[in-house]
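Let us practice reading a record.
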Amino acid sequence: MDKDLKRLLIKISMMLLPGIVLFLPVYTLLYYSRELMPVKEIIEIHDKKNLVGLSYSDPAVNFKYSMFIKKRPSICVLGTSRTMQFREKYFNRPFYNCGGGISRLGDLRKFIEKAQIEDLKLLIIGLDQNFFNKKWDDMKDNPSYSYFLLHDRNISKIPLLQYTKVINDFIAGKCTIGNVIKRRSNIGLNAIVNQNGFASDGSYHYGKDISDKKDTSLEIDAALRSFGSGESYRFEFGAKVNNDALGELEKLLDDCKKYNYHVVAYLPPYPGRVNDKFFEYRRKYAYLFNLKNEISPIFAKYGQEFYDYSDVRRLGASDREFFDALHGSEKVSLRILLDMIDKGSVIGSFCDRAYLNALLRNSKEDLFIFDESY
């Protein structure tokens, strides 16, 4: 080999060596933690013994859709992350929680259109209050949702796009090879390191995030401090209910009627202190106080069920049963389910009320009904 060429190759190798040394642990962590595993492979190994919690990408829409198609449940919960605490163990029929499978009202019809299965009988839909606030959602079409519903994230770009974040986490000791080896059954570093992620029934398991904080009231306090601006995400001021959103809701129910799905929809809960703040600023949040009256007639027209659980203090829930200002716990979801049954909901034919009552009565924790670890 020519000496000049040899020297050039040595120089190039020396220049590349630091990058290789730094990149190798990054790729090793991402690969062995299965952060880079395609969704189609994840759903094949995802079971009751593991969680799916990715740290450096978020294919939740495609993941939930793919799991739904695989499981073909009789009962499905569909909504944002605010619906994720309904559990399979509450029901006596095949169940899957697609919470996190949508983020806006317009996404619901797209999900249902693509996910038509004959097995589905009961569709429980969470209608986030901000869906009906034009300042949060102007109801313009979101074509990217249809793409991400059917397609996985671009795995090849993850190591490069998330390189700096992974390196910083690695240096800070947030993720190590030891962590990966210890909890290899879990899929993704968030599940491996923090025990945060989706369980096999689609519900979300809060692990280290909650065990480290203990007192979730601090999360509620943080949200309350931003209320006065009217610009805080999902807490924007709104004078009236968006008529375009009501029109979209009617189209959704028309589709559900066509597919012969029975719908039980509800407004998800806020902690009591958040409801008190809404009341304090009631003139600026006027749309919230008109939602029930605007939505109820639409559901009545289609013979479907609708409930308002914005404030669940009347069900015996306290703020200690919330993870933060938006997300109620398993205990809150169980209280809601029991109240629906008491009101004569069709849900009662899919549950054992005595069993659910016993679960609530015997629960010793504020946030969890089931004692689970992964």
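A brief commentary: The chain has 16 helices and seven strands.
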